[in-house]
Design brief:
Blueprint lengths: L1 H8 L6 H18 L8 H24 L5 H10 L4 H9 L4 H15 L3 H12 L5 H17 L4 H14 L3 H16 L4 H13 L5 H12 L3 H19 L5 H21 L1
Helix pairs in contact: 2-3, 3-4, 4-5, 6-7, 7-8, 8-9, 9-10, 10-11, 12-13, 12-14, 13-14
Length: 269
């Protein structure tokens, strides 16, 4: 009866021993719990129910095993009879050996996509317990490759992809974030510093970089390259407002004003 039921699943016979063991286990457990199927003997009822449960179990087990996962990972997914984010997270958490669990996570990520950008981002989001890790990593990867195809640098592409997938900024803001992130990485800032720099500049873009950022920006970001970036952004905004190019004298006035603000900030400190 067990063999016939297994053959009807169409699953590779190499999984029969697992199917047999799990069907027996379900039968024993159901026998202890009792039955609610009418017009059948208790033994028939337990047998049918246990085989139905075994069918579900082996379907999930074989699916994960074919990806290359270890027995423990496969058993966790199959036992939950689910393959959503939290089932995968439990499969990951239940593995005690750190090297083994990272190996299993990599197999899982690569089973979703062979794109290395997706894989790296998915693993990061997975560990951050983002329930929509797959969707976010997919969006990140799409945005990243779009930038690369348009001739942008890898740092710019990563910054743009981050803004798109994490914050859902309008495209104008994503481009600003990417520009700032790229600039920070060029000046040897780590990811955390580059992201913080990008968030400040992006979050206040619509409030006017000239008026809003004088103190907020200059107090925190006053390295030469950061001051130059601020200067260029002020000039761009002024030219947009005046609908013409700034004269050299006007540009010099902006530089002097930035210097004045920096002097005031240092006095306050």
């Amino acid at each position: 009866m067990i063999l016939t039921s297994f053959e009807e699943t169409g699953i590779d016979e190499k999984y029969y021993s697992i199917y047999y063991t799990i069907a027996k286990r379900y039968f024993v457990n159901l026998s202890k719990e009792g039955s609610n199927v009418e017009e059948q003997t208790e033994e028939d009822n337990y047998a049918i129910s246990s085989l139905n449960l075994a069918n579900e179990y082996i379907t999930y087990y074989a699916k994960e095993a074919e990806k290359g996962h270890c027995e423990q990972w496969c058993d966790t997914i199959a036992d939950k009879v689910e393959d959503d984010y939290w089932a995968y997270h439990d499969a990951y958490d239940f593995i005690e050996n750190e090297e083994e669990k990272e190996k299993e996570l990599l197999i899982h990520a690569k089973s979703l996509s062979e794109d290395p950008v997706f894989v790296e981002r998915y693993i990061y989001l997975f560990k951050e317990q983002k329930e929509n890790s797959y969707e976010m990593a997919k969006e990140y990867s799409k945005a990243f490759h779009k930038c690369i195809d348009n001739g942008k640098s890898q740092n710019y592409a990563h910054g743009y992809a981050y803004a798109v997938s994490e914050n859902n900024y309008l495209d104008e803001y994503c481009k600003m974030f990417a520009e700032v992130y790229d600039l920070a990485k060029e000046h040897d800032k780590n990811d955390g510093e580059a992201l913080s720099f990008g968030k400040l500049c992006t979050d206040v873009l619509d409030q006017g970089i000239y008026s809003f950022l004088k103190k907020e920006y200059l107090r925190k970001y006053h390295e030469n390259w950061q001051l130059e970036f601020y200067y260029q952004k002020i000039c761009e905004e002024e030219e947009q407002e005046r609908n013409r190019a700034l004269t050299q004298d006007e540009r010099n006035e902006i530089r002097e004003e930035i210097k004045w603000h920096m002097t005031q900030i240092r006095k306050e400190e």
